[in-house]
Amino acid sequence: MISYEMGKSLYLNLTNRCTNDCDFCVRQQSDNTLTDYLNGAQLWLEKEPEYDEIIRDIEKRDLLKYDSIVFCGFGEPLMRFDVCISVAKWLKSHGVKHLRVNTNGQANLIYNKNVAPELCRFFSVVSISLNAKNAQEYEALCHSKFGLAAFDGILDFAAECVKAGAEVIMTVIDELPAEDIKICREIAHKHGAELRIRAKIGEQNNDNAKKRAAE
Ligand code: SF4
């Protein structure tokens, strides 16, 4: 499924691929957990949709009714940076105001250059999974193909997106100890971002998420 609604947003799913292999990734969860969470939507793509296919899918929707259009999973959307930018341009030219990308923050590592200015010409919000308070813990949890370098790369990318004018939100899952969340919040603020605490997929209503989100 290329697009699906959640809350007041429309989510776009452009790839299964990712540079990480996070222990908590939805791709590791059972089909039931995932499809229940997404009201039955199947996100695994048998084939990555081409630009024309994506446009054909989204032009059937009433795009202006959504609060935002979110480029999200199933994998890492910025694995398809050029397609993301092309689709974002199309959306902007059709009156859509708010675009967000949910990313692992490794785009500058993937492309070995600073892509934040190009990204933030179109995306007003960049949500980056921080996940841990240091490189070692990030690597133990997320298993990036960039190894220990991933963590600093993510922080640099966040700072570049802030510099390029985007609202940057860094996220952690609510299972982290409170002390770690405090440190992650300090890291986010130091790089000009906010910290948001999210529940794991399928556990959005649990008490931890609500309690930590309020902290
Ligand atoms: S960064 Fe996201 S898509 Fe990639 S493995 Fe981690 S949770 Fe999954």
Task: Explain this structure.
By secondary structure, the chain is of the alpha/beta class. It has one domain (3-213): Aldolase class I (TIM Barrel, Alpha-Beta Barrel), CATH 3.20.20. It is 38% helix and 16% strand. The chain is built from nine helices and seven strands, in the order ββααβαβααβααβαβα. The protein has helices at 31-37, 51-58, 81-93, 107-111, 116-120, 135-142, 149-163, 178-190, 207-213, and strands at 3-6, 9-12, 68-71, 99-103, 125-129, 167-173, 194-198. It has a seven-stranded mixed β-sheet. Strand 1 and strand 2 (9-12) form a beta hairpin. Helix 6 (135-142) crosses helix 7 (149-163). The longest helix is centred in the C-terminal third of the chain and has 15 residues, at 149-163. The N and C termini lie far apart (35 Å). The model is unreliable at 202-215 (pLDDT under 50). The structure holds iron/sulfur cluster. Iron/sulfur cluster (SF4) is lined by residues 18, 20-22, 25, 27, 73, 75-76, 104, 129, 142.
